[in-house]
Structures are given as C-alpha cells and as structure tokens.
Amino acid sequence: MNIEREETGNLTATLKMKIQPEDYLPGVEKALKEQRKNAVLPGFRPGQVPMTIIKKKVGKALLIGEVERLIDANLKGYLQENSLRVLGQPLPKAENAVNNNWEEPGEFNFSYELGMAPSFEVNLDKLGVEYPAVDVDEVLVTREITDMQRRFGKVEDAEVSEDKDMLLGDMIELDPDGSIKQGGILNRATISLEFVTEDAARQSLVGKKKDDEITVDPHKVSKDPEDMAHMLGISVDQANEIGDSFMFRVAEVKRMAPVPIDQALFDRVYGKDAVSDEAGFRAKVSEGLDQMFRRDSDRLFLRFAMKKIQERTNVELPDTFLKRWIQETSKTPVTLEDVEKGYTDYANGLKRQLVQDRVIETYGLEAKGEEMDAFAKRYVSDQFMQYGMPAPEGEQLQLMAARMLGDQEQINRIRGTIVEQKLMVHFKTLLEPTEKKVSFDEFVTLARTV
User: Fold this and answer.
1) Which residues are within 8 A (CB) of 292 and not within 5 positions of it... i.e. 6 or more apart?
2) Is the CB of residue 243 less than 8 Å from the CB of residue 173?
3) C-alpha span between 229 and 441 (Å, rounded)
4) What is the distance between the terminal CA atoms of the chain, rounded to a whole angstrom?
C-alpha cells in the first residue's frame, strides 16, 4: 500500500493510492472462506460448496468490499497521521472507474481530491464589542405580570370571541365551489386566536359566537404543520398536501379569566410569603426579567464578538472543491447553478465555524471529558428535581450520566453548551465590554442583524 500527496492548489491536493494484491488478497480469501462455510447449495453438503462456485457467485463483490474497506481505513489513517484538516470528505476522481479492472484484479490505483482547511490566526486585541443589556422598564414588568395573571387564570365560557380567546368547533373541508366536500375532513378542533399571527385571519375569528360558521385557511390558523395535522386529525404528510378552504363551525368560546394581583398570586409565583405587596412583587418580576434577558444578552454579545473576529480575519476556502463536494454529496440531485445560489451563505457559515474553532483551540476552551460528565450528572439531577423527585446519587447517577453520554446527539449538545459558556466567560474577561442599555424592541432588532 502506497499513498502519495500532490498539492494542486493553495487549499487543494490529490491523494494517489496504490493498492497491491498482497494488500487485499488476505482479506478477500478470508471473506471467501466465511462465505463457503455458510453457503447452502442444492447437491452439496453445508460448507462443502466448491470454492470456484463461491468465487463465481460472490468473488467480485467481496473484492470490491475489501478494497473499499482498505481505502476508507487508509484514507482516515493518512489524514490523522499527517494532521491534515480537510473540509467535507475526499472526493474520488472520475479516472478511478476507468483505470481499474475488477474482472482482472491486479494493482489498483485510486485518486482522491482534498479540500484543505485554511491556516490562520485570530486576534482579539481592541475588538471593541459592546454588551447589549435590555432595560427592564415598567412596561415590560406590567406585560409580564399580565401574562402571569392569564397563565394562572381559569378558563371560562364567553358569549362573543375576543382576540385572545379560544374557539372550539368543527373543521369541515370544502370543495373549490364552497360546498362541503363529500368524504372530506370533519374534525373537532381548537383555534387559539392568540397564536394566529396573520392579522386578517385573526380578525375574521373575532366577534364570533356559538353556531357561527367562518371560512378559514387551516395553514393560517395553526402554528406549524404538526399543529395543523393535530387540528385536522391527519398525519403531517397529509397536512402538507391539504387545501386552504375549510369551514369552521363554532361550538364554544373559551376565555382565560386572569387572576387578581393579590397575595395568592404572589405565593403561587414565588412561594408562600416570599412577597407581601405589589411593589415587592413588581421588584421580583423585574429581577427575574433582568436575569432572563442577561442570558439572551450573553448569547447576543457572543455572536457580536464572533462576527467582529470573523470580519477582521482573512479566511480563504477551496471554493471550487466545496461546490463540487456539495453537488456530489447532495441527497437530491442539484445543478451547479443551484449550488451557486446558496453558496455564499454556506461559505459564510463555514468561515464562522472555522473562526470559532480556531478561537477555542487558541485559548484552550475545549470541553473536557470530566466537564461533560459533570454537566450530564447535573442535568440528570435537575430533571428529577424539576418533577419533585429525589435526584439519584452515586453509582445510579453515574450510570444515567454515562447512558446520556452514549448518545452522540446528546454529546454534541453538551459539548456545544460547555464551549459556549467558556467562550462567554473568556470574552467577557478578556474584552471587558462596555454595557449598553437598550429597549426590548431595540434588542430584538439587534438580534436580527447577526
């Protein structure tokens, strides 16, 4: 086995792999013997089918499988041993199919194109990033208290619907001419006007009472395909194909009656006697909002900092290679024109990730094994406590944390959370940002810019 690397550009290279018979024959012979041992063929005893027949039936497939295994293992090994940081995966060159004869195996030659990750340094000196902090004013506090009053309120019957009510009734599918569709959908459903985002659709449901009939578009009175599927009593796949004309016949109008601002509400939100008057209640609400917005501010500050670092860092990419890689590895066929349309966003996202990875590497902010283990244990304990159950301890806690860390999706989530926290602390300490008070609306606008 021989592998040679040929630099073909600033960030591209070709790996040429030469595989000799002595590399693949042992594996092929072993696989053939296994096939013969398990082969069942009329006229022959189990395990006694002639090797010539086995080779004729499965020899080529086993040869291809063994060569592909060797290619995969040796490509990975070569990249690791030579500390090559590649983008995407190695792409086989078209000549591979022409230069190799599976019918008369001998020496095999394969070539793979590589797109290399760029080498660059990051500089955090004089970055000048502000820390946006939401100014928790009386308007926000009042809005939050109003939400609490409704959250802890009780559902009551109402005569005529208002813009935050719930309508219970029947969804009835219509034909294009507006008549009830024979064999169409008929399902009891609930529409929460509060979550109907399109103003015209919401207003069409205001002022309605029992037995009123309104033509509605289920896409506009539901939050998402899953919600619409539940509303219509169908699958999500069916919901994606459904029409936009239904009759909604009102059966009930429900309204959430808010609870008064009194000691009962104070106790329910913060615990018995933690707050004794409305002024103290408002102060606690303000404190809670400030803590909540601080977490959002941390994330926005981190995004601003990473954006500034990216703007001052020259990150080159092997664009031609990446476009080809996207095209060839797409789950559905795409043209080069399709790739070009979305490539700028893809490239910016990749550069952002490369810059973040470089910051993490430069300042030693990786998530360590013991940190991930501690995070998993804390998460498991919090989940039990959330439901009022005693948290597991000792060996049981370790076992549950280990099970959690056996899931790659959970590993990625935990690693991402730990790294984000480390970046936050590091940037706050190193950059010493100036805090800038902004209104809630200004904060939302800022968040949309990065």
Assistant:
1) none
2) yes
3) 33
4) 49
pTM: 0.74
- Pairing mode, if any, of strands 435-438 and 246-257? unpaired
pLDDT in tens, 126-148: 888 999 999 999 999 999 999 99
> What are the φ/ψ torsions at residue 232 (nearest 5 degrees)?
-100, -5
- Alpha-carbon distance of 403 to 380, in angstroms, equals 11
How far apart are the C-alpha atoms of 438 and 398, rounded to whole Å?
44
In the structure encoding, which two tokens stand for residue 34, read together?
A: 């296994």
**Distance separating alpha carbons of residues 441 and 85, to the nearest angstrom:** 42
Flag residues of the chain having pLDDT under 50.
Answer: none
* 261 neighbors 148 (Cβ within 8 angstroms): no
Distance, in Å, from the CA atom of 345 to the CA atom of 360, rounded to the nearest integer, reads 23
Please state, in angstroms and rounded to a whole number, the distance separating the CA atoms of residues 284 and 267: 12
| Alpha-carbon radius of gyration of the chain | 32
Task: Give the domains, in start order, of the chain with CATH numbers.
Answer: 2-116 (3.30.70.1050), 154-257 (3.10.50), 268-314+363-447 (no CATH)
What distance in Å separates the CA atoms of residue 289 and residue 141, rounded to the nearest whole number? 8
Taking every pair of Cα atoms in the chain, the longest distance, rounded to a whole number of angstroms, is 94
* Closest alpha carbon to 96 in 106, 111, 81: 111
